[in-house]
Amino acid sequence: MNESDVAAEQAADEPSGSTSPLFWVAVAAAAAVVVVGVVFSQRFGSDPQLQASPLIGQPVSSVAAPLLEIEGAVDLADLEGEIVVVNFWASWCFNCRVEHAALVAAAADYEELGVTFVGVNHQDQRDNAIAFLDELGRSPQTLYVDDAGSRLALEFGILGLPETFFIDRDGTIVGKVTGPVSYELVADTIDAIVLGEDVGVFKTGEVENRE
Amino acid sequence: MPDAVRRFLRVLVPAVAVAIIIAGLWPQPSVAPSAAERVDTLASNIRCPFCGGESIADAPSQIARDLEAIIAEQVAEGRTDDEVYAFFEARYGESALMDPPLLGWGWVLWVGPLVLLAVGGYAIARRRRRTGTPVVVGGSPLLERRRIEDQLAQIAVDLGELDGQVAAGEIDDATRFDLAAAYEAEAAPLRDRLAVLERPPATTADPSPTPTGPDRRRALIGAGAMLAGVAVVSFAVVRMADDGRDAIEVPTPPPIDFENVTVDELENVVARNPEIVGMRLALAQLYMQEGDVSQAVVHFGEVLERERNPEALAWLGYISFQVGELDSARNYLTEALTRQPNYPQAEWWLANLLYYGYQEPAEAVPHLETLLAAPDLPADIRAEAEAMLEAAGGTG
Amino acid sequence: MIAVAGYASVLIALGASIKLVWDGWRAGRGAGNATAVRRDATVLFAAATASFVLLELAILTHDFSIEYVASNTATTTPFVFLLASGWAALEGSIVLWGFVLAGFTYLVARNLGDTDGLGTMAAAILGLVAVFWFGMMATVSDPFGVCTETLGGQCVASSVNPFAAAVAPAEGVGPNPLLQNHILMAVHPPMLYLGYVGMTVPFAFAIAALIRGDQGSAWLERTHRWTLIAWVFLTFGILLGAWWSYEVLGWGGYWAWDPVENAAFLPWLVGTAFIHSAVVQRRRGMLQAWNLILVIATFSLTIFGTFLTRSGTIFSVHSFTQSPIGPALLGFLGVIVVGSLALFAWRAHLVASSPRLDSLASREGVFLANNLLLALFAFTVLLGTLYPLLLEAFAGREVSVGRPFYDRATVPIAFALLLAMGVGPVTPYRVARGSVVWERTRTALIVALCAGAATVLLRVWSVAVVIVVSLAAFVIATILRHLGQRIAARRRSAGESYGAAFVGLVTREPGFWGGQLSHLGLALAAVAIATTSVLSTSEEVRIDVGQAAVVDGYCFVYEGLFTNPEPHRTVTGVDIRLYREDCSSEIGLMQPSVNRYPNATQPVGTPAVRTGLIDDVYLTITSGDANRVGLEILIFPFMWLLWVGGLLMVAGGFWAFVMRRRAPAAADPVEAVTAGDA
Q1: What is the architecture, at CATH level 2, of domain C1-175?
Q2: Which of B43, C42, C345, C583 lies at a C-alpha separation of 20 to 30 Å from A176?
Q3: B94, B140, B204: best mutation site toward chain A, by most A Cβ within 10 Å?
């Protein structure tokens, strides 16, 4: 068979034959792919890690967490009547370093307003955690606790570090920040809670996980 | 005799084996799973939220071990499986469960494969040879001839292999006869068609027996339109679902919306929380917006009594400048900048004070330069500052 | 300077692939010949090689003015990992992919005949894929982008323009710790790529056949070996991935039904279905249209897998970071799928074969069942992978689909596949009489029942394990019996020795016997999957130094802590002496460890594994200091069967690939008919 003959004949090649079931299989497959493609295209730029927290609007659970550096324990449920900012951190977490100064400053500024800061040290070695505070400074107003057995992490449904939660004076979780916080963000959020406005969930950066 | 023994063993051995298997695996009176087994099952059905989508049982991290311990504890406390699942679902949402329930949309997961199985099975059953299969016609005569020759060659191979299969005892003579007849029946119309195609070109130009070109074209166009429709509809649906969620989630930090807060409301809040500086600053700025400078000054002053807040200092400097108290304005603004060196608004006010208030353009130059070095300066201020710098450079 | 040369090589490769599409298309329509196509492919291959070599050169010379080098390597990185960094991160993986694609295109072009319409058209399709790939390298995924801004010693901005003013950080960030932790991570992805890219060749020939309206099995015959070698690499890549998970990740698992793992598994499933249904077409002239669908699906799934891994749209432990190549790959996937399917819908009637199935009870029928089951398997996995995304998009609900679903949905399919694997190879073509099949499988059935009974007698009460062991025994016994019969027949007819008869058989029918070797491997692997998932034990213990803990017949003694500083990491591990249950007869020393890397915040653990004939002992550190160590102890029965079985599968495919060329065109009729082809 001469190839150029074939090519010449192909020009006159008219589509014919009836539409077979395979034709419709092909169309259905293409339709399915189009739907999936549209779904994926809507996900670009969104963060697969970000999830709505079902805990917003829920009362905080009673879990006693041991203090990190001294004897004693703290139960968040006992702090009712105060606005509580719960920040999860660890010495291995880079963004925890970034946000540390902001939290220290906010804890100092808002102490008089009846805001308590709780720094939950999560999945960390105690020595490393204390070295972290020695290096970056500890806030005298903040209660540093050890997240023994990851109990608090579970209670707050955290997905990585750092995450920060806001609890109003009634003991209800009202806000959540995924990623590092800034002073303004903490201040604005506390102000909003004081004003009785909605806070909600938002994200400022990546969270990290320990293998 | 050995033959009889062998035949006997052929029956006995499998019978004994089946008996053993049945006896061994006969459903035991169902024993409740031990606590450890329950923990294992629960841990492999709950997602470890920190571990990139792996279950608690599968994930290698320490937190997964902690969560496993918490599950074990809850099981020891006597919680039911459903209670444990609910505990995790309450904290991490539905996505904590790795085994979607059949409820709601979950049935898709189970019905989907079953539908495919049914459709596929039906399609295979239909692939059976049908008598009187029409010759596939179409394409150029050259291609069609090659196609028919290929098919005839295949049929020849099939017919040849039949002999081998009979010799090997795979098929009996009756089957062979039926198959050979079917193959011949398939070949006959092909040979006829081939004869037509091999006639001089004039006759090969005969229209094909089943010219359904427009049909196919219409089907293709229809399918294309359908795909476009599917794309548009799914896009719209996804968008709608997205919007629905945006209403629940607040994706940006919540700025306090002072636009909608009246001065009176804010006065109340500040009165209740006298020590909270942010509130008071906001109130003072609100007074400034409303033109009530005297009230603003009071509150900026209150702020300064509590702390040397740079924002309050800068605003008081600005107000002083506006009312002509140049020296105190200069003190306030300088202090604001000492306390917060990177403060473009204060820098701009100070430059204005030096340029227009003190009529000392040269002194304004370093402040303007600092100001212009700030990366996030609003465009209008930048333009004004550049113009002022140029003017100052000209005179000084 | 390397940046300029590298970017130039990418542009040359892009130009060559555009030219290849043009020349290939013309030649495929009969308007040109293969000479130009060969030349284009050679230039493409040379330029792609240059880009790969130049990237490696930049890495080895620590040219940190190139963003990729600065962000993925460091001067302290050991040589082997430096080399591997050339393809371990996102842009580098695209470079390697393009290099392999260019190499395969070159091989295809080299073997073109002068008036080879199908081959030149296929080369044009390969060129089209290359255009996309090198286009991506020239724009959104530029491996030679120069670093234009640094912050805190890290490169934070880069430019595609190779002449842009470059700033070089003093030191690079270094590779991802997971990569540095084990050399397997450097080998596993290239294997997968070779498999993925290999599937491009059958796809190109299938599309070329569709475009030209070529009926017949020419495209299938010409790509048979390509499909086999791609399948071999894909299988090997998946096997290495499983082994890496097991040896390195430290949770004792080798498969987690993670979206990215599924993405590699899907083309394997559909590719396997294709290899089987291609046999039916070559043998009986059936299923042409179905084979085209399978090839299109396999190739589309390889692109889907690439997309899923690199798009940042799915949260997985294996995924790369988010990058702009996601939308590009998604667009390409859409074009490929919709374009191929439209072409199929338009032209398939020209190439479709007529229905020639004589009976459902026949070898063809079993092949069809196999295809249905594999397609069902793939569909189920795909559905499970996409379900959370679809539900989130359309119902706004966030759910997960994990192991429980996959296990429940796929295990029955796997059982059915094993059964078909046992019956299929001895079922005659065309029409199978029950008596013939019964005669050929009876012995194997007895062996299977005895194996099941033996398992029960070994006090294994799991129904699933007994079923798998029985089915595996059935498959293996059928194969061995058939081999024995065929050898005996050869000895009778040719008077050969056992060895000569065996060698003669497997070299004359490499496709069939290679396939049977793969079946045997899969049966062994199935047993291992069942035993390791159902019969494993796991226990967490804490041991004081000098003390012992006894778990499942083994005794573990904690002897102490050690620390080894290495140039690129610090290894901290524990010495655990392993004894038999009595704590006096020693088996060996095990050293699970935790490794810290300078630029990584999190340590990476490495388990210690001791492989034995009966079971594997698997240790990971959960906590510990010099006085006390916490260990997770896992015992996996017959783990080695999985690796051996997997390697046998690879070996079977490889045998068929290597020997195929030497196989005679047609075996003598009686043998060919009874043996068939697999």
Answers
A1: Up-down Bundle (1.20)
A2: B43
A3: B140
